[in-house]
Amino acid sequence: MKQLKSLLLTLIAAIFLAAGCAAPPVVPQQSASPAAIEAREAAGITTPALDDPSVKKVGLDIDDTVLFSSPAFDKGYEGAQAYTDEFWTIVNRSDEEVSILKPKTVEIIKAHQQKGHEVFLITARNNSGGEALKKFMSKTLDIPESNIFFAPSGKTELLKELGIDAFYGDSDSDIRYAKEAGAIPIRILRSPESGYKSSYNPGSLDEFIVPDSE
Ligand SMILES: [Mg+2]
Q1: CA 163: distance to chain centroid?
Q2: Between the chain's N and C termini, which has fewer beta carbons within 10 Å?
């Protein structure tokens, strides 16, 4: 009987301990409460752009940075000749159904918004059918549609025009555009499942790499 009682007590203590040690959930919030900032830091959401007081405007690439969008590209390849207007229309209209938001990048966007930074999305996609992508990104990430740009022939000039202080991307070209425009270059890791394999040498341009951002 005594043994049973001590076993029960041990069990109850273990349950309380487990409950007390559970990691605090990271809940995206609209305003930067001290608790939200603590939660962000505890979750390892730190990049040079979040910790630099001179940063006011940040930009992000979309494919393999904000979205795992290979499934949308697969739909394009199935339905049209690659890189035609018809192809881009299929891709841009497929994301909401088949692309997947990258959780680490979403947390980074929320953290910038909590700091009051202006967030822009700049993709190298063609803008055929692009309204669908804009609407999807805008409602999902709380970014105005007017802050979402298609730049198929390079991003450097646009980054300069918009006054972007830091730019996140998965491709070497994103890191180069950022450097050319005088923005802080930050690498988001590409998923190994991505269908896109070119222009990818993380760390080769001395850029900061966001850990666990695949
Ligand atoms: Mg990309």
Answers
A1: 20
A2: N
Check if 61 is active-site: yes
56 Cα to the center of ligand 1, angstroms? 22
Ligand 1 center–CA 60 separation, angstroms? 9
Our answer to whether residue 64 is catalytic in this structure is no
Number of Cβ atoms within 10 Å of the Cβ of 159? 26
List, in order of start, the domains of the chain with CATH numbers. 31-210 (3.40.50.1000)
**Cα dihedral value 213, 83, 164, 100, nearest 10:** -30
Residue-wise pLDDT tens digits, 81-103: 999 999 999 999 999 999 999 99
Residue type, position 197, single letter: K
Q: CB-hemisphere CA count at 13 Å for 63?
A: 27
Give 28 Cα–ligand 1 centroid separation in angstroms: 24
pLDDT band at 36 (very low <50, low <70, confident <90, very high): low
Helix (H) or strand (E) holding 50: none
